[in-house]
Backbone:
């Protein structure tokens, strides 16, 4: 479905609009409070940006270093060309260890790869254990609409109806009861699963570890109880040292939910060791390229700094109105509008770089200073350079360029246009229906122009002899 | 060519690597690892007060006692006071304490899905965020702070450090082998996935009680 049709559908959905409105602005307010209570925020943000940028400058060597350390600790490091390849690798691991059930903690790379569908096709049962992701999975594998709050588009009534239907329990509208019902359903899954799959917020090169932040504790359960742990993440997630982890952890939860720290931060290094009472017998890393390598050294490199906090979407007026599903792929909001065309193809997401007012709220709040509006503008330029814009727009810009290069014609054109617009305004300062382009004024007024063009005024002043 | 070499090769091409810039990059990486530069950190005073205040903000409950010998009795009182079970699973590191003498039915070892109360120590506690730093190992299984509905952690006062950087520094100094899991725990498990309403006890403990000793 086309972006515009998806948006139209979401805007016309009163239930979705009610749900979006319920939480609109709440994350932004929480973040603002957390930043206000933390005087060093700007300095930490600058340092976090520097850490992420410095890793990208030497990403090849940092990855080698991480791999070496992880192997020393007994983990297996696998490399995946793209999402499909990652799925193949994970299915291979599962088969090698006789895995029937995989408990999953949240991983956006798993969403990129479509891992659940691939596992099911291979006869392996995936169980999402993050509450939001679980709700989506039992709702016929609905995609998430936010990278850290996957069911932000749903009401408790919708969850209640779903739980009653799927669990065969009495409907509940109390959020605490719903949460504890999911806990009771998922607890045996953790205890019985053969494999745990996690994402990775950071890969620490110094120790060869993966760091995972969660609030629910499902990340800990997935990486502690099953015999096999697979950490699936992108190749850009490396950071150098434990000190860098400390710095980034000051900024990630604050930017995401306004928390000073998440309830759990787990640093996992290799499989179970001699004498350990718990932990997986086998640990694997699956490091996915999936378009990331091509961004390195390009004008889009800054995007690889992203730590997936979601602040950009929490502050985006467009995202908060149209919801995450409108964006059509895994990543919504401003970061998605940049990543989707880069990972899926410029021609596959023509509208996304335009689905922004370029108000720069996202750029202001990004904890690693990614200039998101600038990147969206560059993507727009790429569309023009590659001749991907529609013919009407291409002709219109060519025509404008031709006229603009001819001053007399341009002056005449603007004089006619100004008078036409003044006539439309009919003495008011707003135009309610734009004659030649009524779509422009379907949802808003257009300001009426001044009576004369700048060039006319300039010429009059010159004639008036410097009055 | 393996996928690994293909990906690393493309990264090198994108970075325009030559032999000499690769060498320089390796030196930069080694220098960064040796330097361990810290970012901006908050002031490190009044550690105990700060720890207690931050831990309570993260919805841990906090209590104090003078000596380690008093720990079992404090645990028993707290559990009874909250109407919680007095059957507990204790990490091997705390096996020497007299749990039975305090009226607790204690099992020493790793927690299972059936244990309702888990008692652990902690490697360090972090004042900046009111956080426990738990290192897994034979003496301190990770499951004991995870599977039971109630988690009691014994926090020796001298284990409270300013921030995560200080905790890492002590881990590097004190631990002969790096633990499989280092878990930072700040209060009970929680979720806000449904309508951004916070609910405690999502998958891990419903309550975390910190007993500061000393």
Residues:
């Amino acid at each position: 479905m086309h972006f515009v049709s998806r948006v139209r559908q979401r805007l016309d959905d009163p239930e979705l609009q009610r749900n979006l409105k319920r939480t609109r602005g709440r994350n932004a307010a929480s973040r603002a409070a957390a930043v206000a209570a933390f005087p060093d925020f700007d300095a930490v943000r600058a340092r976090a940006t520097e850490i992420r940028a410095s890793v990208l400058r030497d990403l090849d060597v940092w990855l080698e270093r991480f791999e070496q350390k992880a192997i020393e600790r007994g983990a297996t490091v696998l490399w995946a060309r793209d999402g499909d390849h990652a799925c193949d690798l994970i299915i291979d691991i599962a088969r090698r260890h006789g895995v029937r059930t995989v408990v999953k903690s949240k991983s956006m790379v798993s969403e990129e790869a479509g891992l659940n569908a691939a596992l099911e096709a291979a006869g392996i049962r995936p169980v999402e254990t993050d509450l939001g992701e679980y709700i989506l999975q039992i709702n016929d594998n609905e995609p998430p609409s936010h990278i850290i709050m996957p069911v932000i588009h749903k009401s408790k009534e919708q969850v209640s109806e779903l739980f009653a239907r799927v669990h065969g329990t009495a409907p509940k509208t109390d959020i605490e009861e719903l949460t504890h019902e999911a806990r009771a359903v998922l607890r045996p899954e953790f205890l019985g699963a053969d494999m745990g799959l996690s994402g990775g917020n950071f890969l620490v090169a110094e120790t060869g570890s993966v760091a995972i932040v969660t609030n629910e504790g499902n990340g800990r359960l997935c990486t502690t109880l099953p015999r096999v742990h697979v950490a699936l993440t992108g190749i850009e997630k490396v950071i150098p040292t434990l000190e860098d982890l400390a710095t980034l952890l000051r900024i990630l939860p604050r930017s995401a939910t306004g928390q000073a720290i998440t309830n759990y931060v787990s640093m996992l290094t290799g499989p179970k060791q001699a004498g350990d009472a718990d932990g997986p017998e086998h640990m694997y890393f699956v490091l996915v390229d999936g378009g990331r390598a091509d961004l390195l050294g390009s004008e889009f490199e800054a995007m690889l700094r992203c730590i997936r906090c979601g602040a950009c979407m929490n502050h985006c007026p467009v995202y908060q109105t149209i919801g995450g599903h409108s964006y059509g792929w895994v990543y919504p909001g401003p970061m998605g509008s940049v990543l989707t065309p880069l990972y899926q193809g410029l021609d596959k997401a023509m509208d996304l770089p335009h689905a922004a007012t370029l108000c720069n709220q996202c750029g202001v709040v990004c904890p690693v200073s990614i200039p998101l509006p600038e990147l969206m503008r560059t993507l727009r330029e790429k569309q023009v350079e590659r001749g991907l814009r529609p013919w009407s727009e291409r002709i219109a810009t060519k025509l404008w360029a031709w006229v603009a290069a001819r001053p007399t014609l341009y002056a005449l054109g603007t004089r006619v246009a100004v008078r036409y617009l003044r006539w439309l305004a009919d003495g008011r300062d707003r135009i309610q229906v734009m004659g030649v382009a009524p779509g422009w004024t379907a949802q808003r007024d257009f300001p009426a122009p001044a009576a004369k063009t700048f060039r006319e005024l300039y010429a009059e002043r010159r004639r008036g002899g410097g009055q | 060519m393996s996928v690994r070499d293909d990906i690393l090769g493309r990264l090198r091409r994108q970075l325009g690597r030559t032999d000499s810039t690769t060498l320089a990059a390796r030196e930069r990486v080694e220098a960064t690892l040796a330097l361990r530069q810290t970012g901006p950190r908050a002031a490190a005073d009044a550690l105990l007060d700060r720890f207690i205040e931050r831990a309570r903000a993260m919805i841990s409950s906090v209590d104090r006692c003078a000596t380690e010998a008093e720990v079992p009795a404090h645990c028993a009182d707290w559990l009874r006071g909250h109407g919680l079970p007095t059957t507990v699973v204790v990490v091997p590191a705390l096996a020497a304490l007299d749990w039975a003498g305090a009226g607790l039915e204690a099992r020493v070892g790793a927690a299972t899905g059936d244990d309702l109360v888990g008692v652990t120590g902690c490697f360090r506690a972090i004042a900046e965020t009111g956080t426990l730093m738990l290192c897994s190992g034979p003496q301190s299984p990770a499951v004991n702070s995870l599977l039971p509905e109630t988690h009691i952690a014994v926090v020796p006062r001298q284990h409270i450090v300013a921030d995560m950087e200080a905790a890492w520094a002590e881990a590097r100094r004190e631990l002969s082998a790096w633990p499989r899991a280092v878990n930072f725990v700040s209060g009970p498990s929680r979720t806000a996935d449904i309508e951004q309403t916070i609910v405690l006890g999502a998958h891990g403990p419903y309550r975390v009680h910190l007993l500061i000793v000393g």
Summary: DSSP finds 22 helices and twelve strands in chain A. Chain A has a mean pLDDT of 95. The longest helix of chain A spans residues 407-425. Chain A touches chain B through 98 residues (CB under 8 Å).
